[in-house]
Amino acid sequence: MLETDHSKPIYIQIAEWLENEILEGSLSADEKVYSQYQLAEIFNVNPATAGKGLTLLLEKEIVYKKRGLGMFVSSNGHEKLLAERTESILQNQITNLLEEAKRLQIDYPQLLKLIEKAYKQQGGNI
Amino acid sequence: MMTIIECKNVTKSYRSKTIFNELNFTIKENSLTGIIGRNGVGKTTLMKMIAGFVQESSGSFEVFSERPFNSLKVSSNSIFVDDLMPFPQSMTMNDILNECRRFYFRWDHDLALRLMNYFSLHPQLKIRVLSKGKRSTFNAIIGISSRSPLTIFDEPTTGMDAVVRKDFYRALLKDYIAHPRTILLSSHHVEEIEHLLEDVLLIDNHKVLFHDSITALQETFLHITGKEQLILKHISREDIIATKETGPYVILTVKNQLTDDTLEAMRKDNIRISPISANEAYVALTQRTKGGIDDVFK
Fold first, then answer.
1. Which of B26, B186, B188, B272 could form a disulfide with B43 if both were Cys (CB 3.0 to 4.6 A apart)?
2. pLDDT band at A7 (very low <50, low <70, confident <90, very high)
3. Where does CATH 3.40.50.300 sit in chain B?
4. Chain B nearest-CA residue for A46
5. CB distance from B26 to chain A under 8 Å?
6. CA A111 to CA A117: how far, in whole Å?
């Protein structure tokens, strides 16, 4: 679950793991999220570190806090994550792809053809 | 948050040798802090002063609001675990556990017996027959089962094999989650304990070099990988803490103080920027100006 080279701070890895759980539907809207103590057990880390991961999601309003009850997935948490990932991660990968294409001297129409081909190979219709 | 340990301007010297010079820090209640530092910086001396085993030369120490030296309050609320815990050699482990049960007011005897069973320690054996690793395991079991409000482990895993070490740290974490208390843990294997820690107290050159969360330690530095000439277009040589050459590329350790613009410009130039592990950050902070071991062979 955790990266073995552990160069990425653990609390960020925990936040990302929770985000994936929400994206994949393992945790749905208004469902209770693991407590910092449960996360500490699962990831074998200090509860304070696990708590930082939860705080990250709280700040992004992907989860909300109910006093005395814990953290719950926000009703629009899933959408928020989808939008954020599309924005940042996909955008990032597109930038990388364009830079790589430039390095390999592949022009835009050629690149589009390659994408179409890969898309069809995965069973997609254009 | 309550303070359990307060250390103000503490100086410690043995004869003419200075161990600590004006040490200042506080440890909050129910936190798990790693005491780290290179060999011989005084980790053990510091922890023994906190436990009241050793006197400070000047300055003031307060543990549970009392000076720890000769304090019954400190002694009944704390435990100091290392590989040399001086138990009478003729006692069996069972005898020792029963004595602990009488002394430590939060002692969990059932937990102690379950851990003894798990680690295959036979209570009827006398402690003098134990191997180094088994002896450390036994001491560690006492440390965990005592549930002392202040639990101090000085290099607790000496002699333990890799599997036992892992199990011990897991047991410590689980019991800490279930029964929060203030724990100090020293080790020079930072990579082995970093996941367990909330805070790090890093001792170097007679002083506290760093005292903050483990996350903050990790985020003090960054790794930058790429062609050296290219990297030096973006940052100056003074920013570089450490350099490692790998083929045509260098991996530089730099302070995490670069602006977003600089980072972005470097990424555009195909320079890889990555986080650094807490252990690498520790090594970078305590690096000697003498250079690395490679320089000895030049």
1. B186
2. low
3. 3-216
4. B196
5. no
6. 10
Closest by alpha carbon to B36, among B214, B163, B254?
B214
A85, A113: one domain:
yes
Domain range for A90: 78-121
ipTM: 0.82
Q: Are residues A56 and A98 in the same domain?
A: no
Question: What would the two tokens of residue B183 be?
Answer: 């724990």
Q: Does A102 touch chain B (CB under 8 A)?
A: no
Q: According to CATH, where is 3.30.70 located in chain B?
A: 221-274
Which one of A42, A46, A52 makes the best mutation probe of the B interface by having the most chain B beta carbons within 10 Å?
A: A46
| Nearest-Cα residue of chain A relative to residue B34 | A46
- Note whether A50 and A40 are within 8 A (CB): yes
- The pLDDT assigned to B217 comes to 92
Contacts of B215 in chain A (CB under 8 A): 9-11, 49, 52
Q: Is A48 on the interface with B (CB under 8 A)?
A: yes
Rounded Cα–Cα distance for residues B273 and B294 (Å): 25
Angle (CA) B139 B141 B146, round 5°: 100
Q: What is the pLDDT of residue A49?
A: 94
Asked if B213's CB is within 8 angstroms of A45's CB, the reply is no
For residue A37, list chain B residues with Cβ-Cβ distance below 8 A: 177
What's the token pair of residue A22? Answer: 């929400």
Whether pTM > 0.80 for this model: the answer is yes
Q: How many structural domains are present in chain A?
A: 2
* Top-ranked range on mean pLDDT: pick from B112-126, B226-240, B277-291: B112-126
**Mean pLDDT, to the nearest integer, of B197-224?**
93
Judged by a CB distance cut-off of 8 A, whether residue B171 touches chain A is no
| Cβ–Cβ below 8 Å for A9 and B32 | no
Mean pLDDT along residues B251-270: 87
CB pairs under 8 A between A and B: 47
Q: Which fold has domain B221-274?
A: Alpha-Beta Plaits (3.30.70)
Q: Is A6 on the interface with B (CB under 8 A)?
A: yes
Give, in order, the Cα–Cα distances in Å from B198 to each of B28, B38, B58, B201, B278. 11, 20, 29, 10, 12
What 8-state DSSP symbol labels residue A33? P
Measured in whole angstroms, how far is the alpha carbon of residue B19 from the centre of its chain?
Answer: 18
Residue B182 to chain A, least CA–CA distance (Å): 13
Contact with chain B for residue A11, Cβ under 8 A: yes
